[in-house]
RNA polymerase-binding protein RbpA
Amino acid sequence: MATGGNAIRGTRVGSGPMGEQDHGYHADRIAVSYWDGLGNETVRYFAAGLPEEEIPETIDHPQSGLPAGRDKANPPALAKAEPYKTHLAYVKERRTDEEAVQLLEDALTQLRERRGQ
C-alpha cells in the first residue's frame, strides 16, 4: 500500500480538470504584421477583443533589432551611421576664439542674473 500524498496514479499533480482552452491557448487572436526598414516581417498576435489603440504602432524587430512599423510601404527609417571622423575634422568644427569668448560672457551673465535673483 502506498503512503503519503493524494495524487492518483498516472496523473500529474495539480493538473486538475482545466484543459488548454481554459488556459487561453485557443483564445481568439488577431495577427498583426510589422516590417522593419530592411523589409523583414514579423507577426505578433493580440487578443481579438483588444482595442485598436492598445496595439502598438511600432515594435523592435526581434531578428534585426531595428524598429518595425505596421505600414509595409513606409517602415521606420534605418538609423543613419555617422561616418568616422578624423581628429582634423573635429578640429575644423571648433569654434573661433571670438565665438568662445561670447559664449563665456553669455554664460557668466546668465549665472550672475540667477544669483542676483
User: Anything to note?
Assistant: The mean pLDDT is 80. The first helix runs from residue 20 to 23.
